[in-house]
Amino acid sequence: MHILVVDDELSMREFLEVLLTRAGYQVTCVDGVRAAREVLGSAQVDLIVTDMKLGTSQSGMDVLRAVRALPEPPEVIVITAFGTAASAVEAMREGAYDYIGKPFDNEELKLLVQKALEKRSLRRENVSLREHLVPGAGVMGVGRSERMRAVWSLVEKVAPTRSTVLIHGESGTGKELIAKAIHLKSQRAGLPFLPVNCAALNEGVLESELFGHVKGAFTGATQERPGLLVHAGEGTVFLDEIGEVPLATQVKLLRVLQERKVKPVGSAAEIPFHARVVAATNRRLEAEVKAGRFREDLFYRLNVITLELPPLRERAGDIPLLAEHFLERQRQELGRLGLRFSPEALAVLSAYAFPGNVRQLENIVERAATLADGDVLTLASLPPTLRGEPAPSAAAPTEEPSLGSGFSLEHYLDDAERRYLLAALSQAGGVKTRAADLLGLTFRSFRYRLAKHGLSDRDDEA
Length: 462
Ligand SMILES: Nc1ncnc2c1ncn2[C@@H]1O[C@H](COP(=O)(O)OP(=O)(O)OP(=O)(O)O)[C@@H](O)[C@H]1O
Ligand SMILES: [Mg+2]
Description:
This protein has helices spanning about 10-20, 35-40, 60-70, 85-95, 105-135, 135-140, 145-160, 175-185, 205-210, 230, 245-260, 285-290, 295-300, 320-335, 345-350, 355-370, 390-395, 410-425, 430-440, 445-450; strands spanning about 1-5, 25-30, 45-50, 55, 60, 75-80, 100, 165-170, 195, 210-215, 225, 235-240, 260, 270, 275-280, 305-310, 340, 375. The chain is α/β, with parallel strands linked by helices.
């Protein structure tokens, strides 16, 4: 994070440079508005800390005005002299993030800086989210982790072809969404996309669904009916849960895919079909083949192109993006446009392993939005399972520690601190003074630690 300090007084510039550099930021110092403009024009600046009084002819207000013209304006904190509250209020009105009066407490300033930068990165996240969403938003899905980018680029490549695609991924990872994306990105887009849940249908019904039947083929078959493979025309048939297809049907399916002809139940005639087939499963078909539950030949037939959908925990970077995506849907559906996550809630979501993957996240956000009293979705609106249980390793100090290669005491303690902060917040129902008590910390020290882990939110100052 890059901070620009604007102050006409050398001693103040030097002081702030040392303080903020020690706090881990990249710092540039200038003495006035002109030099500030030059830096802003040539480097990315995330935050400006400026004195209100800059020499005789200029002020922090000029800095604020210079900033407003930028496409991605940094946050601004204004330092005001004692007894100039009116100008501080004016600065806020001009878009300053906050102000701090001289003389100030170092820690107070650092906290303010940290919060301003938090706000900045949240805002940038939103901007890039919007950028990412532009092409075909809802249908195509969200995700810009390396893993998802690889998936999207494969989708682009396979969509225009006729190859059979097999999608593999845990439950809720978005297999159906990807199947649809493949359909929508192909020339078949305007044609039917027909999903068949192979797990929900017994052998007979599944075959007549897929291949069709003639009149009188079985009790209840009062009319001839084409199967979905024919009915889809040049569209796409999505064979969901392909791993659950009974072995006897697997044999028939293999023949059908090889010859691109179906024989409706009860008929001797074969009908050609042109639909594209996309299949999905949450099972490891290789293992199913070894166990004798899935035909090897069908596996190879389906497995021409395999798309592996990573579980959400292996692309945790996508969690805030997806959470925001689902929250946006709730905003629209509930007509509550102010809904947003507290940083703590977002942090807890980002740290969770999501055994139910994207679907689980979607449900959690929907639930939280429905339960939230105000506009802010806090820890209290998340399901109890999510609110950090302390790590067993950290909870058992009597155990002999294991020191594998790559062990770092600093990371370990940092991680433990974070987990305990979250656990205390959760047990205290988000009430920070109580959480501090639970940890045997003063409120001040607790608040400081929250900020250090990026877990604090605005009302902390209250
Ligand atoms: N990348 C994504 N962006 C936005 N929404 C997504 C994304 N991936 C999945 N979803 C949403 O998550 C939910 C689950 O996705 P989907 O039904 O495609 O998963 P699945 O892998 O087929 O799950 P299951 O194995 O349980 O059938 C859907 O509501 C889907 O819209
Ligand atoms: Mg599915």
